[in-house]
Amino acid sequence: MIERIDCHTHTVYSGHGVGTVEEVVSAAEAAGLATLALTEHFILPPEIDPGNDFSMSLEELHLYRVDIERARERHGGLEILCGIEVDWIGQPEQNRLDALEGFEYILGSVHFIDGWAFDDPDQLSTWDDRDVDEVWRRYFEIWCEAAQSAYPFNCMSHPDLPKKFGHRPSFDTRELYEHVAQVAARAGVIVEVNTSGLRRPLHELFPGDALLRAFRAAGVPCTIGSDAHAPQDVGSGFDEACAAMVRAGYAQLCIPLRDGDHRFVDLEGFL
């Protein structure tokens, strides 16, 4: 039986999630997980998130870490990573690099395209004024910029997020996907198979099969995260993610470690 993991989870600290750190960790334990990464949303500049609706405040960072340490004391059989999800907004000096010190697992993500929160359900109507093809091209330009940045990203999350509401490009994506995969390979980052799309009308993993195959062809390791924003979603979609990895040609699952390194386990049960 393969080790079950979840390397992307959120709590009430996110501003839009529910469940305490203890509740999320308890859910992971109940789901039989071996490794859990708590990856709360990192501080965003006030001009982007003035009410901390999408991210933690600077003051909450310490409390978040304290809660994780307490959970480790109560749940010694579960490997718990103190992680963080950092939005790349193209303004590194505003992302408070100094405040990232001490985090064991750092997810890089792109939720904003030139200040536009394109995956925010409250801004869904703003897609009507956008060229979908240009959104996809610009998104991946920013995603590649993040992957190659000086930030200490261990992993890049939900790689094809613009499809979240069903918006698909009209052009052949093969060349774009190959380029993105090569960038990730050169940057030495892990890529996440994010299962949150399975819980949405989209009912598709991030990344989809074609992009996942491109990552495999480029030799980019993959891990798995639920992107849970509630305890009941912790660990969800793990089997589907493993099956997708096998279809794409992966034989091993990448598991991050607390020291910033990672290890691999065979996907034997899905081969």
Search tags:
271 residues, alpha/beta, 7-stranded parallel sheet, two-stranded antiparallel ribbon, 6 helices, 11 strands
Number of helices: 6
Classification by helices and strands: alpha/beta
Quantity of strands, as a count: 11
Low-confidence stretches: none
Order of helices and strands: EHEHEEEEHEHEHEHEE
The major β-sheet equals: 7 strands, parallel
Portion in beta strands:
15-25%
Shape: globular
Strand order of the largest sheet: 1-2-3-4-7-8-9
Account of the protein in words:
- The protein has 271 residues and is of the alpha/beta class.
- Helix content is 29%, strand content 19%.
- It has a seven-stranded parallel beta sheet. Strands 5-6 form a two-stranded antiparallel sheet.
- α3 runs parallel beside α4, α4 packs across α5 (209-218) and α5 packs across α6 (238-248).
- It is globular, with a radius of gyration of 17 Å.
- The two termini are 12 Å apart.
- The mean pLDDT is 94.
How is this fold's topology laid out?
Blueprint: E1 5-9, H1 21-30, E2 35-41, H2 58-74, E3 79-87, E4 105-109, E5 112-113, E6 116-117, H3 132-147, E7 155-156, H4 174-187, E8 190-194, H5 209-218, E9 222-225, H6 238-248, E10 252-256, E11 262-266
Parallel strand pairs: 1-2, 2-3, 3-4, 4-7, 7-8, 8-9
Antiparallel strand pairs: 5-6, 10-11
Helix pairs in contact: 3-4, 4-5, 5-6
Short description:
The protein has 271 residues and is α/β, with parallel strands linked by helices. It has helices spanning 21-30, 58-74, 132-147, 174-187, 209-218, 238-248; strands at residues 5-9, 35-41, 79-87, 105-109, 112-113, 116-117, 155-156, 190-194, 222-225, 252-256, 262-266.
